[in-house]
Amino acid sequence: MAVTDRFRRPHSYEQLLAKLTDKKTGPFLTMVEAMMFAAVLGHRKGERKPFEQFDEPIRLSVMEGRLYGDVLLDMLAAIEHEDDPKILGDERQAERVLIFEEYANGGLSHLQTLIGRQSNQDLDVIISNLVLEALRNPSEEEKKKKDDVGEILASADLDW
What's the pTM? Predict the structure, then answer.
């Protein structure tokens, strides 16, 4: 795949992205922040969804300029292809961007469903509840990784 300098926004969620970044009532300041949150949500919920139609792409450098933006792009790809370290190579950047885009699309889909079910709630409350849920209830994958780290530390017999 070729190197890319932009990532796409799914057309079907442009209205949702506009609500999420509304200057008066939106919980996010920028489209990039909303997309980053959606990608993490999509990954957490296991919702990676391809899409065909998209609106104006966003320069990748804008996300990379955000705190941990480039790390998020790489981490999603590394988790998706945990047995393939070459996924982090420059020649596979477009593949990493696609993974990010599809998880963001899945996260936006999940968020749209929540908003439909909880139409009486403010967006801030819905987003806050998602964050609190993630902090209180680690996913099965997160629990397993925590157990793996504990096993490694226990087997090392470290004398601190």
Answer: 0.81
Angle at 40 between CA 80 and CA 20, to 5 degrees: 145
Decide the pairing of beta strands 6-10 and 54-59: antiparallel
Report pLDDT digits (tens) over 41-78: 999 999 999 999 998 888 888 887 787 888 898 999 99
Residue type, 27: P
Alpha helices, H only, the chain:
14-20, 31-44, 60-64, 69-80, 93-117, 123-136, 140-156
Distance of CA 64 to the CA centre of its chain: 14
C-alpha 76: how far from chain center: 7
Residue type, 18: A
Reported confidence tier of residue 158, pLDDT bands at 50, 70, 90: very low
